Amino acid sequence: MKGKKYRVLLMMLVISALFIVSMPAMSSGETYIIPIEGDIDNGNWLFIQRAYNEALDNGATAIIFEIDTYGGYIDSAMKIADLILACPLPTYCYVSNKALSAGSLIALAGEKLIMAPGATIGAAEPRLFNQTADPKTLSMWSTKLSSIAQTRGRDGEIAAAFADVEMEIEGLTEQGQLLTLSSIRALELGIADSICYNRFDLIEEYELSATAIKPGKSFQEKAGGLLSDPLISMLLLALGIAGIVIEIATAGSFGVFGTVGLLSFALFFIGRFWAGNITVGAVLLFFVGLILIVLEIFIIPGFGVTGILGVIAVFASLLMASTNFSHALLTLGGSLLIAIILIIITLRNKTTRKIWSKLILSSKLDTESGYVSHDESRLAYLGKSGITLTIVRPAGTADIEGKRVDVVTNGEFIEAGKRVEVILVEGTRVVVREELRVES
To answer: Percentage of the chain surpassing pLDDT 70?
Structure first.
């Protein structure tokens, strides 16, 4: 009797085990949804890399890369695509609207490529400004598209036709036409694996974990993306250039124009730094260049080596802050054009000058206007002679009747040890010029 009970118990255990084995596998972890939106640049790459590592660390069972982009930079797209290819988890690239240009490479990298109804993929011709890139770049890019497509069991020739306008595929595309596919056409050609209305349909169709996590961008990632946007970057540079130039042209104490200029430059570099597009060295190089320019304008007479080095340093730092040389030229060119327009409007337009005059002190506190210096003894220096104790460029120190006096010139350069005469006293300003000697 006892043996019979054991046999019944053993049979029940076997049946239970068979039942458990026969049940469909259920994902115990989470499905991570990583959005790939906007420009494909280094900032987007850093966010995707962080979200990807977070998914692996938290034991995710699958990753859905949700794509909606017009494209971006080739180097950033290649890094994202290689990361997806190397992922140890099942990867699903879902094109919710469009995966164009660099976005098409990323879409092809997933184990499964799913598209929403009406979505598009392709149009991946590499371009420099408004021109097709050089043959070397085109060859590398089209080969990369083809290679990744073939790695995932897709037609490499079709993927290459996304980028190469000279390719011709019978019944699909003619020479001179860049290939772009709708979701239905991509499914027919085997480029897409299925069509899903949204990510929830995708999760249900591929039996993924219904517990979905979508990492959000941090404040730094959002701000870096906004400030490094091509248009915003161009405007910040334009305001920076215009602000500094106008500040120098107004020849007043450092005020609103200089503040706006420096703040704009600071925001430009902060955005680039947060987006991972620049190093601290480039920022330091910019400010060193700015200091050299200021020294050349206010201290060293004329415009020579110091000013030229300053300009070179500033432009070199701006080039270092760009993802590539062509992008740097485009941004700098647009910024200079906008800055020139702002400078002309501000300095030449009477209405604008009236508005800005309310923000700066334009009155001269001189004796002719009825103002009297707190130190009236300085008036005694008027017409007196002395000897410069330091270089005056345009500020320095002179010995006038045995007293050490801070003096300035009207812009000229006077070496130390030269005889000078006081030609004007305005408040605390003692203006001198080199004494004229008449040879007998």
So the answer is: 77
Q: What is the torsional sign of CA 366, 371, 373, 379?
A: positive
What is the location of CATH 3.90.226.10 in the chain? 27-217
| Tokens of residue 85, six digits | 């290819």
pLDDT of residue 362: 46
CATH class entry, domain 27-217: alpha beta
Helix runs in 95-209, H state only: 102-108, 135-151, 156-161, 183-188, 199-205
Q: At 95, give phi and psi (nearest 5°).
A: -90, 100
Integer Cα distance of 245 and 239 in angstroms: 10
Which pLDDT does position 29 carry in this prediction?
79
Cα–Cα dist 100/428, whole Å: 66
Name the pTM for this structure: 0.63
Nearest one of 328, 299, 293 to 314, comparing CA atoms: 293
Portions of the chain given CATH number 2.40.50.140: 367-434
Chain segment 167-210, per-residue pLDDT in tens: 888 888 888 788 999 999 999 999 999 999 999 999 999 999 88
How far is the CA of 236 from the CAs of 48, 97, 255, 332, in angstroms? 26, 31, 18, 11
How many angstroms separate the CA atoms of 333 and 327, rounded? 10
- The CA-atom distances, in angstroms, between 28 and each of 24, 25, 202, 203, 382 are 12, 9, 17, 14, 91
**Terminal-to-terminal C-alpha distance of the chain:** 146
Predicted confidence at residue 105, as pLDDT, reads: 95
What is the predicted pLDDT for the residue at 394?
72
Superfamily of domain 367-434: Nucleic acid-binding proteins (2.40.50.140)
Higher pLDDT, 84 or 252: 84
Cβ count near 55 (within 10 Å): 23
pLDDT digits (tens, 9 = 90+) for 87-132: 999 999 999 999 999 999 999 999 999 999 999 999 888 876 566 7
Orientation angle between helical segments 280-298 and 305-320, nearest 10 degrees? 150
Cβ atoms of 131 and 152 within 8 Å: the answer is: no
In this predicted structure, what is the pLDDT of residue 352?
A: 52
Q: Strand pairing partners for 63?
A: 32, 91
Max distance between CA atoms of the chain, in angstroms, equals 146
CA-CA-CA-CA torsion sign (179, 185, 186, 190): negative
Q: What is the DSSP string of 319-366?
A: HHTSSSHHHHHHHHHHHHHHHHHHHHHHHH-HHHHHHHHTTS------
Q: How confident is the model at residue 64 (pLDDT cuts 50, 70, 90)?
A: very high
